[in-house]
């Protein structure tokens, strides 16, 4: 019974819809009678032109003009009209913006990211300003601007990003899966990294990167750095501490290998200083081919484990394998080599300490003796030479 | 010494008038010195950037020549050449001593081995420097020259051994304990530093820049020195040769102009490179 009675209702509804559609078409036609003129301007000289075909193909193409421009009821309409409120429909997005770094609607109107209001396309459409491959350029319009970055105390991130491995994957390879700005920062509810709820807050970085790099993040989380961060010890490094946030390099690239050891050295100062004394570091600092051992060549990179852990590459049981990766033929005696020996510490490395002391004494005493010997000799032989030449009646020198 | 007389014979062409020149070094000895100093400069120029890899010039130099790969390649190349030169020299000593039964190679007035006279000469020389005694009468090789020789000899064994231990570390680890692999770098770099500082400051001044030889002692390049120089620098050898009637047989030919000029260019280049490296070393050493 209920089904039967709904038929006339449905008929009425569709009649109403048809009427509305024709009204909408008519309303657009009415408005476009003036606004289709590409040179149309308001009193203050702003363009009020609407590109009709573009608008029709846009995601809002089926809407009536006054669906958004709600203050316009009749023609002619007043010169000053109320600004469009996108949140009438897009309430969730508008709610997201509240409290975000872009919350100010005056500074960041929706169109600043989504582009011209009359040609907004869905984000899966390559024409959209927020299509994944277009996002960096859209954000870069502001975040690639030195003056803007300086004004807000932000780094000028766009050039860093676009030259990074993510930027290359996106701009050169056109990979939709490559991280763009919003992959890490979100889109509407972007929070400062100082906000604990931000996806780029230090505590949340592993999770954020892990949304793509799941395997690496799992490794990281089972290592000491990951565990420390999970336990709230935020002095331990997260992904971005080693890889940086925007200028991320291919870790095997020489530039990254060159910069990687001082990053670990920021915290592991004593290990860094003893590493510096070794041949690994001496050669490694010179650049060029950079296959000399960096911290993570031996210690691993993500699943950082203490040397006491049998799974650690620097566990005694694994050293022959670990060292052997570069040093073919490494044996049990070879791996007794101490990559962090401290020749200045008598207690830790007595043999090395005394060898260094002996070599230094040898150097100092030999040079001191001969320095004195040479200086005295120089003075005396010059004195003799002058005397001799005088006696010969010649010139002094 | 027969070899010097042979060298004198070879160098003597038409009898030359005027100043007489005496042979001090054979051609082989001069070549040995040339190989020694060119590989030494090469080793120093490539070793120092590794030793002071944090200094600004090390990185700049490394990137200019193509990174550490290039640097260590030339370091090893020079090392191998120098090793061969060293082995040839050792073979030469054994041949002269054991096969040729040459007298005076290990002892006596023309030997490189230190003796009692060297101790007396050293003390006498020091007394003379401060004006407390006469100048010692030096023989063919004065005590500081013998020191130079043995310092290089010892240095080549120590630096060479520690260098090869690093180059072939897994091999050396078969019979050396692990900590020795740490020790060889300390030994190699400290001994290398000593050699560099010694050669580029003490040897340069003692041999080339002191007033008697200033600006450069050409004898190691030309093989001959003037009679006046011979008499002044090594009066005892001169007197001995004169007394034994061997002076005539040591007379060589006045060095050709091209040889003198060529030697000057080579020698000054070496000294210039050496002094540059000395300045860089000292600047990096004291900044460390």
3D structure, described in words:
Chain A has about 400 residues and is mainly α. Helix content of chain A is about 50%, strand content about 0%. Chain A has helices at about 1-35, 50-55, 65-70, 90-95, 110-115, 135-145, 145-150, 155-160, 165-170, 180-185, 205-210, 215-220, 225-230, 240-245, 255-265, 270-275, 280-285, 295-300, 320-325, 350-390. In chain A, helix 12 packs across helix 13 and helix 15 crosses helix 16 (about 270-275). The termini of chain A are far apart. In chain A, about 25% of the residues are buried. Chain B is mainly alpha-helical and about 290 residues long. Helices cover about 70% and strands about 5% of the residues of chain B. Chain B has helices spanning about 1-10, 25-50, 55-65, 70-100, 115-130, 145-165, 170, 180-210, 220, 225-235, 235-245, 255-285; strands spanning about 20-25, 225, 250. The model of chain B has no long low-confidence stretch (mean pLDDT about 90). Chains A and B meet through helix 17 and helix 20 of A and helix 2, helix 3, helix 4, helix 5 and helix 6 of B.
Q: What's the gist of this structure?
A:
Chain A is built from 20 helices and no strands. Chain A has helices at residues 2-35, 52-57, 65-68, 91-97, 110-114, 135-143, 146-151, 157-162, 165-171, 181-185, 205-210, 214-222, 224-230, 239-243, 254-265, 269-276, 279-284, 295-299, 319-324, 350-391.
Mean pLDDT of chain A: 88
How many distinct beta strands of chain A? 0
C-alpha geometry of chain B? globular
* Mass-distribution shape of chain A: elongated
Largest interface: A-B, 51 and 54 residues
Query: What is the residue-mean pLDDT of chain B, rounded to a whole number?
Result: 91
Distance between the termini of chain A: 132 Å
Overall SS class of chain B: mainly alpha
Taking the alpha carbons of the first and last residues of chain B, their distance comes to 49 Å
Give the topology string of chain B: H per helix, E per strand: HEHHHHHHHHEHHEH
Fraction in helix of chain B: over 70%
Structural class, judged by helices and strands of chain A?
Answer: mainly alpha
Order of adjacent strands in the largest pleated sheet of chain B: 2-1-3
- The SSE order of chain A reads HHHHHHHHHHHHHHHHHHHH
């Amino acid at each position: 019974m209920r089904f039967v009675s709904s038929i006339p209702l449905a008929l009425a509804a569709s009649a109403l819809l048809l009427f509305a559609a024709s009204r909408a078409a008519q309303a657009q036609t009415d408005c476009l009678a003036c606004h289709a003129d590409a040179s149309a301007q308001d009193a203050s000289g702003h363009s009020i032109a609407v590109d009709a075909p573009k608008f029709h193909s846009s995601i809002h193409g089926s809407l009536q003009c006054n669906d958004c421009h709600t203050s316009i009821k009749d023609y002619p309409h007043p010169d000053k009209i109320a600004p469009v409120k996108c949140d009438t429909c897009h309430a969730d997005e508008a709610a997201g913006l509240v409290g975000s770094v872009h919350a100010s609607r005056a500074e960041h109107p929706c169109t600043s990211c989504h582009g011209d209001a009359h040609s907004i396309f869905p984000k899966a459409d390559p024409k959209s300003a927020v299509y994944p491959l277009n996002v960096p350029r859209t954000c870069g319009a502001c975040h690639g601007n030195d003056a803007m970055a300086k004004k807000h105390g932000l780094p000028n991130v766009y050039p860093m990003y676009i030259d990074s491995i993510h930027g290359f994957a996106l701009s050169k390879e056109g990979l939709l899966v490559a991280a763009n700005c919003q992959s890490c920062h979100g889109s509407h509810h972007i929070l400062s990294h100082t906000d604990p709820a931000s996806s780029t807050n230090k505590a949340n970085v592993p999770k954020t990167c892990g949304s793509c790099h799941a395997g690496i993040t799992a490794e990281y989380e089972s290592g000491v750095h990951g565990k420390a961060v999970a336990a709230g010890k935020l002095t331990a490094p997260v992904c971005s501490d080693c890889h940086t946030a925007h200028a991320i390099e291919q870790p095997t690239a020489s530039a990254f290998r060159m910069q990687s050891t001082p990053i670990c050295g920021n915290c592991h100062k004593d290990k860094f200083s003893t590493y510096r004394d070794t041949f690994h570091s001496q050669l490694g600092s010179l650049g060029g081919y950079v296959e000399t051992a960096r911290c993570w060549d031996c210690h691993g990179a993500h699943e950082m484990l203490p040397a006491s852990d049998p799974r650690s590459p620097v566990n005694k049981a694994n050293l022959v394998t670990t060292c052997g990766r570069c040093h073919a033929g490494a044996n049990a005696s070879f791996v007794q080599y101490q990559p962090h020996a401290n020749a200045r510490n008598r207690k830790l490395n007595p043999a090395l300490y005394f060898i260094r002391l002996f070599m230094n004494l040898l150097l100092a005493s030999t040079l001191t003796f001969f320095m004195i010997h040479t200086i005295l000799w120089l003075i005396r032989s010059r004195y003799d030479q002058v005397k001799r030449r005088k006696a010969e009646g010649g010139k002094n020198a | 010494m027969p070899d010097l007389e042979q060298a004198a014979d070879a160098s003597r062409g038409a009898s030359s008038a005027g100043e007489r020149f005496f042979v001090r070094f054979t051609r082989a000895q001069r070549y040995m010195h040339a190989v020694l100093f060119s590989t030494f400069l090469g080793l120093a120029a490539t070793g120092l950037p590794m030793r002071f890899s944090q200094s600004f010039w090390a990185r700049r130099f490394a990137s200019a020549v193509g990174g550490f790969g290039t640097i260590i390649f030339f370091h090893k190349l020079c090392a191998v050449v120098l090793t061969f030169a060293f082995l040839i020299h050792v073979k030469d000593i054994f041949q002269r001593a054991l096969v040729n039964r040459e007298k005076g190679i290990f002892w006596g007035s023309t030997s490189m081995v230190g003796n009692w006279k060297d101790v007396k000469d050293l003390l006498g020389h020091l007394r003379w420097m401060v004006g407390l005694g006469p100048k010692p009468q030096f023989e063919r090789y004065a005590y500081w020259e013998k020191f130079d020789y043995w310092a290089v000899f010892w240095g080549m064994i120590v630096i060479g051994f520690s260098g090869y231990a690093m180059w072939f570390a897994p091999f050396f680890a078969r019979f050396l304990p692990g900590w020795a692999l740490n020790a060889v770098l300390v030994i190699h770099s400290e001994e290398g530093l000593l050699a560099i500082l010694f050669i580029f400051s003490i040897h340069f001044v003692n041999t080339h820049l002191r007033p008697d030889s200033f600006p450069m002692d050409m004898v190691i390049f030309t093989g001959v020195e003037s009679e006046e120089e011979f008499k002044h620098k090594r009066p005892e050898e001169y007197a001995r040769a004169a007394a034994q009637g061997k002076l005539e047989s040591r007379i060589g030919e006045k060095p050709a102009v091209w040889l003198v000029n060529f030697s000057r260019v080579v020698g000054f280049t070496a000294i210039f490179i050496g002094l540059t490296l000395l300045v860089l070393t000292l600047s990096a050493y004291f900044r460390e």
